[in-house]
Amino acid sequence: MPLPASQTAARVGLTVRYVSHGTPVRPDGSQAFPSVCRAAIVTEVDPTYVGRVGLNVQNPNGVFHYPLADGGCEWLPPADGGFPHPGGTFHHLDECEA
Ligand SMILES: [Zn+2]
Asked: Distance, CA 92 to ligand 1 centroid (Å)?
């Protein structure tokens, strides 16, 4: 998948956005906790694919680590008709609508 030009700038120490998964959707379509963008810092970049990075995610109630050793986080484009970016992925600040 081709990456946007800004994606090539992914590097250690860069501030990006991580998309939380949110809680499961109820039958009525609501969610207790919807998917939201969180502040995150790139801790490592996959040397074979710049679209996969390790992240340190800054949630209001705690910090989560997603190292490359555990799969890291991947950049993915917004989904059609859904949340702007899929849960569990990252994107750059200039790609964020939050
Ligand atoms: Zn965002």
From this structure: 8
Q: Are 35 and 23 in contact (CB under 8 A)?
A: no
Residue 19 and residue 98 in contact, taking contact as beta carbons nearer than 8 Å: no
From 95, 73, 71, select the one nearest 85 (Cα to Cα).
Answer: 95
Contacts of 61 (CB under 8 A, 6+ apart): none
Sequential pLDDT tens for the chain (98 residues): 556 555 557 899 999 999 998 888 899 988 898 889 999 999 999 999 888 999 999 999 999 999 999 999 999 877 775 557 888 999 988 888 77
Ligand 1 centroid–CA 27 distance in Å is 26
* Angstrom distance (rounded) from CA 49 to CA 30: 36
Gap from CA of 19 to ligand 1 centroid (Å): 7
CA of 74 relative to ligand 1 center, distance in Å: 14
Token reading at 60: 């209001």
